[in-house]
């Protein structure tokens, strides 16, 4: 399979003092490796001190900004590289494989992940008098990278600075988050957000189908019934779903099942056979085969590796 790499042209010098300040602040806020919730709920801070192998995970709709180091994410035959010069937008829930490429104890990988508020995006579009934009781009893959602008970097820095004054967060953080989403909306990836917010668009319909599958991942998926619920034909649903997620609805459901089983085994100590049944598998052997195919090892061994710290940061 031929991979297609997305890596926009660099727009700023990587030694921008604002970038350095942002990296210093994030490193101070998260002195240990891991995925850390911040005092502002929509914002998550991530740190890793070493590169990792490709790690399958589920990406939620968000803006991902690497402030130090670099990472790549693979979905289907597409590879997305992002670093301090480029940011990633994920417009729908997507199972993908992420790999941290540059990280060390002295220069750890540092990343900000800000949840996308589709209602806020819709309000911004209304105020700006925008519609869904170019309809030919509606229904594109729900992941993309673009060059970081100075205006977006300024807005991100303002939000991170607010984490040092928690009493200001309830009043000022919503405005800072709004500005960030405004800058993305007006930038090179604005179409990703506009199409998600348009209720009768293809991307929005696929997002609704994803939400249904997530709420019913343990049930038998009948594509005809799902298409009817989305007011689409089965062939149209299959085509549009694959365009946005790089997989069919059934493949998407299978990945969600495997990720949920992994969470149950790791977080709740559930046995593999019990977790398999909980997420909808009737055959433990089929579950083990598909789990190994996705995560690279049988369930018990892979979970032990996670518990021992052998799996890298998402």
Automatic annotation (TrEMBL):
Protein name as annotated: Helix-turn-helix domain-containing protein
One GO molecular-function entry: sequence-specific DNA binding
Domain of life of the organism encoding this protein: Bacteria
The keyword Transmembrane is assigned to this record: no
Keywords recorded for this protein, A-Z: Transcription, Transcription regulation
Pfam families for this protein: AraC_N (PF06719), HTH_18 (PF12833)
UniProt keyword annotation of S-adenosyl-L-methionine present: no
